[in-house]
Amino acid sequence: MERLKNIDDLKRLRDALNIEITRPVLEVCGGSACRAGGSKKVVLAVKNEADIRGIDLEVKVTGCRGLCSKGPNVKVRPHGYFYTRVKPDMVASLLGYTIGANTPFRPLLYRDDILSEPIEKVEDIPLYKKQFRLVLRHNGRIDPKSITDYIKIGGYSALQKALSSMTPDDVLNEIDKANLRGRGGAGFPAGKKWKHTKSAKSDIKLIVANGDEGDPGAFMDRSIMEGNPHSLLEGMLLNAYAIGAQYGFIYVRHEYPLAVENLNAAISEARELGLLGKNILGIDFSFDISIREGAGAFVCGESTALIASIEGARGFPRPRPPRLSEVGGGVWGYPTNLNNIETFANVPIIIEKGADYFLSIGTESSPGTKVFALAGKVKNSCLVEVPMGITLREIVYDIGGGILGNKKFKAIQTGGPSGGCLPEGMLDTPVDFDTLTKAGSMMGSGGMIVLDEDNCMVDVAKYFLSFCQSESCGKCPPCRIGTYQMLQILERITTGKGEHGDIGRLEEIGKKVVEGSLCGLGNSAPNPVLSTIKYFRQEYEEHIYDKYCRSKTCAGLGLYVIDDEACFLCGLCKEACSFDAIKEGKDKFFIDQDYCTKCKACYTACPIEAVKIEKKTSVKVSKSH
Amino acid sequence: MINVQEEMEIVGDILTDEQKRRAVLIHAFHKIQKENNYLPEDKLVALSEELNIPLSDVYSTASFYKQFYFKPRGRNIVCVCVGTACHVRGAQDVVHQLEKDFGIKAGETASDMSVTLETVGCVGCCGLAPVLVVNEEIVGELTKAKTEGIIDSITQIQR
Ligand SMILES: Cc1cc2nc3c(=O)[nH]c(=O)nc-3n(C[C@H](O)[C@H](O)[C@H](O)COP(=O)(O)O)c2cc1C
Ligand code: FES
Question: How many CB pairs under 8 A join A and B?
């Protein structure tokens, strides 16, 4: 590709790309989930079949569309038909119907469930109806490895606009006016941060994009880095132009090899075209970006720890001030502006369409959209982008399609390991930065896990706490020791050894850890525990006083019995028991309580759920110690 | 072994020699691990001399990050996702099943080096939960039978 020498060159390139002849395009999703489902083989099959039949078509491997539980997904343009769960052996029929006969191939169309009518077009799928795709608008339409694809659909036109008709201060003011709040968790206004960095007295300034995404159960940033890396680069370029930065880093989690691959491809293409490097588009503005890979440490998502990691040290956070934006605070001491990936991806939209457009979406205090990774016990586990202010109920039921297997909803966990669990009564809470925090949870990075009646809230709290405990860097004692002690108590409670007073102890230590810790990890680690105690105290009490786990998740609790009527004497439970607690009677099996360790082996082994875990009603527990 | 100037790209222009040598450290670990599957002692000693960073410091940094291993790993690597989405859909059962059948605990390597069992927090395929990664290939929507299939295929590769 030839280097673009000025802004007109970029315009000309875009115009030239847009007069290309149009042939049918098959957009095959190449996101990680669809790849796991075999989308690479689908691509090969399509190419093969097209060759055999002599069909002239373009196969485009795109980024994630969000409908990960029904992959591999394929959309055909210009027809607009959308196919799910495409297998290589169905490609021939798919092409025959769609391209040969211009009719949809019904067996692969999207259906809510097997009984419902198939839906032909993406726009009509309920999952997409309530969404507002802004940041992800090009995901699924472009080949992330092709800069021309991005330019063709209008990419880099925000940069073009800024460089040709806006001063750096104009760009900065536009972002400030749009009240773009950081999507990485805290919701700090990006414009303020940029201004701060700009005002620092240093000729050299740096920019860091935080793509560490350590929240175990979230993949918003990944889908941007994998599916539309140029939107991130464009956002960083605009940031650099606005504050006068020369170097940028993208810190990517090591578990995301495809993101690294696509970002590397994007950076080298952008350099080749002269959109990165010296004198970008012929003007006096130079900026370059390098990638830094993490190595599996959650705390490195914290900004000061991330900086230590880029410098090549242990990823320890440090107290602030100095802030990153100040001299002496950033990477190697240079003032540094650090934002989340999604924050950056919003920037080109604001510059291109104006702050007023952005302010018209979402709520007054939190304008714009937010991408969430909806997962857990919902029918549609998917990546969704919704305007701020939408309620949790709309996300779970209208977009997520409700609870898997028509079970009962129990709670929704937002904000990842630092967030909290909200019960059914809070489902009508609008989603924005401030209301979620008020409710005792937080926006966090955007993980959203739905829990149903089969999930034990104490176990979920223990899960998140054990995550934070093992990820605690160990620098400050409240976090290192406090989380460990809380975990010990939870461990006791979930194995039937809970004592009166444990809940109070958890609350007390939790509050101290929140107050006393050095960085955001410790400040928020007790949140899942505190919020579940607040909303699901009864479940804690059941574990402690009744020695019973209502969702039958925790082993070591309850009374194990065999339901004689249901039991059909297969004997699998007896085989599974390592303690010889299951005895064979004349024509029934029963459990010898003296030997039973409540290890749950028989419960899991029984194919028809005839082994029951019951609440011990006869045992009296004295509550007055 | 490692070209400091090249690895640092253009930002190297504003750094001191010491800063540059330090900044390539983690990258160097990744590189060594890619070649050797783990971080062998002799390689770390050589790296420490090359970058002029004390060996204790090299170890201190490497051991902070969970992705770096100081012991050789198995020929096959099975990594179970224990991220939130997978956890609530039964990832622990998958871990237990694998632990039992391979006869090792998560984080360990079988004595014949055939397989290493690891866990990871979210590989970004939550829609397919529970998920595991066999030698970098993601397998989703695990069931008991599917997991057994994986175990069989690995024990067969071994033979
Ligand atoms: C323990 C911890 C982990 C974090 N992990 C991430 C992360 O993975 N990605 C991210 O963007 N921000 C993460 N953050 C928040 C960052 O510190 C920082 O606030 C954010 O990246 C700033 O970007 P924003 O203003 O655009 O949101 C984390 C914070 C803490 C305390
Ligand atoms: S939690 Fe397992 S893939 Fe996300």
Answer: 148
**Most confident stretch, B49-53, B121-125, B153-157:** B49-53
User: Could you read off the pLDDT of A75-95 as tens digits, one per residue?
Assistant: 998 888 999 999 999 999 999
CB-CB neighbors (< 8 A) of B88 in chain A: 376-377, 449, 451, 455, 460
Cα–Cα distances in Å, from A398 out to A125, A130, A139, A393, B85?
11, 7, 22, 8, 20
Q: Identify the architecture of domain A7-124 in CATH.
A: 3-Layer(aba) Sandwich (3.40)
Strand-pair partners of A110: A119
What number of CA atoms fall less than 13 Å from residue A388's CA on the CB side? 24
**Is B71 within a domain?**
no
Angle between helices A157-165 and A341-353 (to 10 degrees): 60
Asked whether residue B135 is domain-assigned, the answer is yes
| CATH 3.10.20.600 for domain A369-455 | yes
Q: Return the residue matching tokens 């999703």.
A: A29
- For the stretch B5-21, pLDDT in tens is 888 888 999 999 999 99
Q: Are strands B137-139 and B132-134 parallel, antiparallel or unpaired?
A: antiparallel
What topology is assigned to A559-618 in CATH? Alpha-Beta Plaits (3.30.70)
Torsion on CA atoms A261, A263, A269, A275, rounded to nearest 10:
-170
Q: Where are the domains of chain A?
A: 7-124, 147-358, 369-455, 458-546, 559-618
Q: What's the whole-number mean pLDDT along residues A17-40?
A: 87
For tokens 């028991």, what's the residue?
A577
Q: Is the dihedral of CA B23, A338, A269, A165 positive or negative?
A: negative
Name the burial class of residue B41, with classes exposed (0-12), middle (13-18) and buried (19+) by CB atoms within 10 angstroms of its CB. exposed
The pLDDT score that the predictor gives to residue A551 is 93
pLDDT higher than threshold 60 for residue A9: yes
Contacts of A375 in chain B (CB under 8 A): 84-85, 126-127, 129
For residue A358, what are the contacts with CB-CB under 8 A and spacing of at least 6?
A178, A180, A346, A349, A350, A367, A368
Radius of gyration of chain A (CA): 27
**C-alpha atoms less than 13 angstroms from C-alpha of A495 in its C-beta half-sphere:** 8
DSSP A49-90: HHHHHT---EEEEE---S-GGGPSPEEEETT-BEE-S--GGG
Long-range contacts of A600-606 (CB under 8 A, 24+ apart): A600/A555, A601/A573, A601/A576, A601/A577, A602/A560, A602/A573, A602/A574, A602/A576, A602/A577, A603/A552, A603/A560, A604/A576, A604/B93, A605/A572, A605/A573, A605/A575, A605/A576, A606/A572, A606/A573
Phi and psi torsions of B19, nearest 5°: -60, -40
Q: What is the ipTM of this complex?
A: 0.93
Query: What is the percent of chain A with per-residue pLDDT over 70, rounded to a whole number?
Result: 98
| Chain B residue nearest residue A222, CA to CA | B124
**pLDDT attached to residue B158:** 53
Indicate yes or no: pTM above 0.90.
Answer: yes
Say whether domain A147-358 belongs to CATH 3.40.50.11540.
yes
Determine the pLDDT at residue A446. 87
Query: Which H/E stretch holds residue A367?
Result: none
Test mutation, A252, A381, A382, chain B, max B CBs within 10 A: A381
Buried b (16+ CB within 10 A) or exposed e, A107-146: ebbbbbeeeeeebbebeebebbeebbbbbbbbbbbbbbbb
Rounded to an integer, the average pLDDT of A586-606 is 91
Q: Output the CA torsion A570→A573→A576→A580 (10° steps).
A: -120
Q: Which residues of A touch B136 (CB under 8 A)?
A: 257
| Model pLDDT, residue B121 | 84
Is the pLDDT confidence value at A380 over 90?
no
In chain A, the percentage of residues whose pLDDT exceeds 90 is 80
Collapsed DSSP state (helix, strand, coil) of residue A292: strand
